[in-house]
Protein 1
Amino acid sequence: MTVTRFAPSPTGKLHIGNIRTAILNWLFARSTGGTFVLRIDDTDVERSEERFVDSIRADLAWLGLRPDAEVRQSQRTALYELRFEELRAAGRIYPAYESQQELELRRKVLLGRGLPPIYDRAALALTEADRAKLEAGGVRPHWRFKLDPGAIEWHDLIRGPQHFDAATMSDPVIRRADGSWLYMLPSVIDDIDHGISHVVRGEDHVSNTALQLQMFAALGAEIPIFAHAALLTGAEGKLSKRLGSLGVEHFRDEGIEPQAIVALLARIGTSDPVEPFANPAPLIAAFDFSRFGRAPARFDEAELAQVNARIIHQLAFATVADRLPAGMDQAAWEAIRPNLTTIAGAADWWHVIEGPVEAAIDPEDRDFLATAHRVAGAIDWAGDPWHALTGALKEETGRKGKPLFLPLRRALTGLDHGPDMAALLPLIGRDRALERLAPS
Ligand code: GLU
């Protein structure tokens, strides 16, 4: 049974990077008939805010990524306490008393000597008496997880074989002196408790994984499978600051549909093509970590806009009806849909249908349009008025191609481009068409 989790910290809104992580977790869970858990990582009481929890939920709902369960770390501290005590009793967690400044100084000294800035485990050398003395002096300890020496290895579903040497890593601080938790250990405790089978996240977490693998082992748990996705870069190929500020609100304002975001983010950085899927079923069916590459995935807003337009061109009237201008029916939607890049753009074409339109008539076309007006009054409007009109005009005036079509389009819509006139003209209707063709 596959269980994935998306574990954002509610210290801000979701941005394109963590939206992608959510999408990958959701797609993989759905592709395997598994479960997708939303875990709110709100152990940092100072920086976590309820409004961000709400916006994370709302963003996932808008994207169509429905979690099967939601859990919050702030409600699970009793379990963390329990497992902390177990690890402490087993000698895998130890108190340390250095201040930030002291640690910083030691780091600088090591770096200055060209050595890796690894914590020297001075706290492990303290005797019971040393600790009692420090604590009597008002120093409260923070807590570190003691790494086992040796190689740390795993097979990453995206990155392949991974190798770290514990000797090159510092024992991670897992709990602050005030008793609050850092992200590392609670995440492992939750992954175990929730039976997470696959941890899917960004490659910025790779070195955390090395540390966390030892925590899984120390807690006697089976180790989940890991997949670390390469980071996103901007269109220009560089890690851009802008990506961190792009969230659901921005895309919604730009008229981007959630399906476009899912379709694009599911495929960038993979060997599969980006395709405009209005329904995620094919993305779910074809989801495969082995398609993901290790090179950064390029996120291009222009590409997103293109995918968005191609998705809009497929959307059924019923799915968009409540977002269209009042009165706009299925025939109108289907006529203008191929010309839209956003659904909001439907209003502009609706205005072209309803009028009034303003048309700049070329003096050379006046006679032609006067003829058109007469012919339009005589044709059968119930059938295919555009072909009836243009067919009769061709016969009568000898015009064909652009000189035939363009003046009509201009007079009838006020524009040189737009939806297929054969679909548009019945919507404009006889009365409005005659009015627009009438000599001024
Ligand atoms: N709260 C962590 C983050 O947002 C979770 C990382 C993880 O997936 O374990 O980076």
Note: The two ends are 73 Å apart (CA to CA).
Protein 2
Amino acid sequence: MQRIPLIAGNWKMHTSLAEARNLAAAVVSVCKGLTDREVMIAPPFTALATVAEVVRGSGVRLAAQNICWEEQGAFTGEIAPGMLRELGCDMAIIGHSERRHIFGESDALVNQRMAGAMRFGITPIFCFGETLAEREGGQTMAVLERQIRAGLADIAVVDPTRLVLAYEPVWAIGTGKTASDHQAQEAHEFVRNLLLEMYEKSIARQIRILYGGSVNSGNVDALLRQPDIDGALVGGAALKVDSFERIIHFRQ
Ligand code: 13P
């Protein structure tokens, strides 16, 4: 079985309601007839309900940018899995570098979010990646291994399509500096081998690993041609329909 490429747009803290509605409608329209790849968008929480109506029935998938592990309760500022499911949102980005570095989310907290998402049937996009200092210090693979083993601790995977990983080197996010195809493939291959150690081989081979960090219309083809890169998690270039359309229609 082949891994179906996934192109995911993370809108971060952008878009008014009107902008979100228009952008989502444009994404739906450029995705018509696509069968060999999946497309997902992650608007801010405030626009999820609006965007859910726009994408309903289109095949474009909807994700939240974070998720809590509890069903309900005293968790000010958090969103429960059931609240997302009610909107038709069945994916969530977890452990994004901005959550880790700006808001101090630890590996343990990320693992808690992962467990919660899986328990309630939300497909996580589990993000990890090294900083520039860690790369320059020769720590890249050790950091990735620590983040992955901790983030996926006690996470059982039965259906490999219901877990997505995203390698996002921190130094490549929003900087215009993309990892080279070689650097990205090297990290992805390392992650694939780690998954093969952690999970049953047939499962590990099916888990998608996305690359994120300054993906744009000019570099997407070469990145996605790499054998262990199964899609892209796109920030800035997902906010403009022209660039996102070209990324969605990447050529391998
Ligand atoms: P950019 O594509 O803007 O570098 O952002 C990447 C990212 O963080 C996606 O989650």
Note: Residues 10, 96, 168, 173-174, 212-215, 233-237 surround 1,3-dihydroxyacetonephosphate (CB under 6 Å).
Protein 3
Amino acid sequence: MLHSIRKWKRRDFLRNGFLATAGSVLGFKAINPGIAAPAIRTNKFKPVAISSGNGLAATEKAMEIVLNGGDCLDAAVAGVKIQEDDPDDTSVGYGGLPNERGIVQLDASVMYGPTHRAGAVAVLENIRYASEVAKLVMERTKRVLVVGKGAFEFARMHGFKEENLLTERARQLWQYWVENRSRFDDFLTPLEDIENIPEQLKYHLEHGGTINLNVLDTSRNLGGCTTTSGLAFKMPGRVGDSPIIGAGLYVDNEYGAAGSTGRGEANLQTCASFLVVEEMGRGSSPTDACLSVCRRIIERTRVSYLWRDGKPAFNVNFYAINRNGDFGSASILSGTRYAVNDGNGSRFVDAAYLYERE
Ligand code: GLY
């Protein structure tokens, strides 16, 4: 963090120096570009890391970093990278389930409270650490969202390794999905396989994936990251909520941080993570803010295929911290747990919910 502040100052100095020189040559007065310095807080504060149910190790890592004086966003990215590396997490990074053509396409975003800046990538192929690339978009460009080939080239420019992210397990699950998609297509599956839907695939399709991690550090600064391989077997180019600031992630250093996993389209249609943070800003507890946005999503969901027997046939989960270090989570459907570490080790906690899962 100190390193990046030093870089900021150097850059401001260079820019002001350049404007002053150009001004005297061209005969105009240099105007201060008015770059606001990041809000730096230094008092020691009790840190918290909150994450989705696949984030137990991530919260542990994030807490270790902030307890050693590290920065909230560095901690968030270091935490989620554990899942991006994990071939058994079929919802994130390496080992993530591919799109309908068998290509792994990643989405990720970061947001940093002290500067209120954000970075994101979408439809990123062949680069494992979408979270780190998103952070570099924030730090090393004037942009917020970079997609597709441009995101890949940006990552390569920064030295990221190009690699095939489709593991053998993810390929098998994809093949199974293709072969069982329709009676009317070209493919056949051995009969015994049809009854025997791989448990991992069933679990993934019912529960989804993605990791969101939000961190409050000892300087009382907030940072968050959401990273995913997105909806399993999605149409090529589909982008969910994870890389969209305000939908899959939002951080406001004065109010709190929130992120989401689950059906991305529901969050895109309601600016859901932004709304969670706004509700906390109006005084709601993190859990109440998450529940309130779950209710809003339900009230606005009018598409028939998303309802079954009067109940939602999809799920969305939120994870939130306010600036005082209170945390909470809620889902539309029961059975979701989240991971949290408030300095006493990482643990799972059951999320609040609106409806019992069938
Ligand atoms: N929430 C992740 C996605 O919908 O892609």
Note: Confidence is low (pLDDT under 50) at residues 1-31.
Protein 4
Amino acid sequence: MTEIIVQKFGGTSVGTVERIDAVAEIIKDASKSNNIVVVVSAMEGETNKLVGLANHFSQSPDKREFDALVSTGETVSSALLAIALHAKGINAKSYSASQISMKTTDSYSKAKILDIDANKIMEVVGQNTIPIITGFQGITETGDITTLGRGGSDTTAVAIAAQIGAKRCDIYTDVDGVFTTDPKVVPNAKKLDSITMEEMLELAGQGAKVMQTRAVEFANKYKVPVRVLSSFDEGDGTLISLKDDGMENALISGIAFQKDQVKFTLHGVGDIPGTAFKILGPISEKDIEVDVIVQNVSVDGKTDFTFTVSKDDESDVKDIIEEIKTEVEFKDLMINSDIAKVSLVGVGMRTHAGIASKAFKALSENDVNIQIISTSEIKITMVIDKSLVEKAVQVLHEEFELDK
Ligand code: ADP
Ligand code: ASP
Ligand code: MG
């Protein structure tokens, strides 16, 4: 039997009717040699427009209704792409999350995929028809509509590829592949022919929005080969490789950055066992991801406890801190949204010392003050002032000669 390839098309790729026509050509072409299953995002700008409509009435709209609203962009693009394929004589049918029983948790706007009806998808493929599935959407056990978080169509695509045992998942986007950093910030950033899954996980997790982090997690867990490539220009893109042969590991593979961050500092908390848990426990219970965490050396039994979260979670975290006030004593709460994270990622860091000091030196020579540093085996993350993020990325890209 012919193998299956899942093709995912992002918002820019289907941003206009002309683009939808171009994408239909790519699908038509690929369907000559493989069975194709398509996952599609909303047309460019649509999801933001829907978010804006909700925000006209409330900054924190009802979560259920918000997801029901913002998921509709994908409904439009999937049906429209099917119509475009029909015009080219190709059999295609659009499917929503509920039609393929894409079950998720009920964590609105950050729902996690639990199950997908692979049989349904395979039945359509068996009828010589290309399923055009809405990305980003899911449904709860009780049938309410959820969404998977911004950029979530990547996750839909990889999860479907895993579930139907696809040969590969191709993520079509508006750049030629995964670059050493965002080519919109560093124009001479270099396209990578391949990158290890581990590095891609860190880059995505630290803000390289070319793929949603959950999508890379799925690919890693279910061993789905993924390729990131352009729907605008021909090329082989970047292969996210499942094996790390360790042969030519770059010292630094890439630089990621993230601006939509907020720093919370609880000043003057008691340096006693259980404090970190009392603060972070209720936050993680709400599925809020805490990123950089720092606790300072205590003076007279008091310390500062700092952590960063996504801007989207700011008001929820504020509410939680308000609630735990009675259990965790602190002097004041400081909230700073003028921050950004810059991260260097590379498996070569495991075997090379001195990368951190080289990065710190380069930033200090360019007057970029580092507020917090956090490291892992293959990553160094620095929290800096938001206004300096582009400069910091350019300086580090140059310092580590990533364009070479
Ligand atoms: P899509 O709509 O196709 O899902 P996204 O806008 O979500 O596309 O992701 C693609 C964008 O990711 C690129 O246009 C680029 O600006 C950005 N990006 C950030 N970091 C990188 C990187 N390291 N390599 C490639 N693109 C990156
Ligand atoms: N349309 C959604 C978004 O803009 C999902 C996606 O594009 O992946 O975030
Ligand atoms: Mg995306």
Note: The mean pLDDT is 94.
